Amino acid sequence: MTKEGHIRRLLRSVPSSASGIPSYLLAHFAKSQLWHASTLLFGFFLTEISRVAPDAMGWILTASLLLNGLVDLALGKWWGQRVDSLGAAYRMQARAAPLICACFLLFCLTPLVWEAARPLWALGTLLGFRASYPLLDVAQNAAPSLLPITARERRGLIAHRNIASGIAGILVCAVAAPLLIQYRDPWGYLLWAAAVASLACASAWRLPRAGGRVAPLRPVLYHATPASVPFSTVLAALAGVTFAGTVFRATEPYYAAFVGHNAALLLWTAIGATVSQPLWLWCRNRWSIEAMLAAAAALSLLSAAVLLGTQRASTASAIAVGLGFGAGSGGLWLMLWSAMADRAAQGNATRHVGAFTCVSKLAQSAAMLLTGQVLALSSYRTALRDPFSLPSLLMVGMLLAIAGICIALALDVAFRRTRSDGRSAPRRPADPRVRVRGRLPG
Length: 442
Fold this sequence. Notes:
By secondary structure, the chain is an all-alpha fold. Helix content is about 75%, strand content about 0%. It has 14 helices and no strands. The protein has helices at about 5-10, 20-50, 55-80, 85-110, 120-145, 150-180, 185-210, 230-260, 265-285, 290-305, 315-345, 350-375, 380-385, 390-425. About 55% of the residues are buried.
């Protein structure tokens, strides 16, 4: 079978028995536009459109993400035994969507507020958005672990989720980002935000009618494979890659505005993360985890090398950096999310999801604090043109950090596999009188 045939088969890998999957993916796509806009553009939106100081921007985003993470953790624990079916998860999303979208739209009104009151307005509305967002996010992220499907099918569903999220990211970079970066148009951005919020509400309201009749799953015993990575290791890797990725992505709009003068880097990052998902899924079913992690590390290192080059301001360099970073981080995200979803499928799905997303949000909050301080300490509008300035080196350093995390994970998996193989090797008893499996030998 050709590579194209393999990819077409993978794109059909989500089982038809999972009712409501198309509606679920549409809701995930709509929700992801809200999230991509908040993580990718809110910093630039505050400093360049709303004229909020960079250090104040950093503190506003840090406080809101910290609150988001804590609510994720508390909600996941509280819902642990309550949200145990798709129907319950879908109903939670439908109820929460209007509040979340209202807070999102109120935040987007920040440039129209009296200038002295903008930091306080932005903080209040963003805290409302981050505090309510877990009501939608935790329930939706738990859905793959509540479906009666195999681990391989779950990987297929997560790849589809990542594709839907990636398409949402492409639209944010193709429509919303130019409105802010190239045209500095707050009214156009507000109209886009209203359209996105309307779709998020409509798709969430549709979910309970589309596929919420799947019965609760019975927990099953989790059997670790020789190369399994402990959940604590998954969370540690998640914290590192989220921190590095957030710093890089939060700096991208400034790089696009003052170095590339267009949204090419943002757009190609989203494209790389999206189009690589079927290929990563194909590789996951044929390659070892170590080989996949090595490939992801190589892509990040390639992006770092291009970003340090003399042609870094060209469109070709933006495409290369964006594709390398997007594809590399996209493969790592698929592996981390699959590991979390497999563990969550064994029971208490929202508890595992809440812990996972809490760590992610806490890492993002630390990343935004660092980003705000670096921008405040440098003349970033001109400094980003120099490949060896502080904000430029920060972007390169984050790419190197992602590559390092991939290599460390690969070594950890290889070590665990070697140790497990050594333990499973047959051993000859030193004394023939020693019992083996309850019987004397011979």
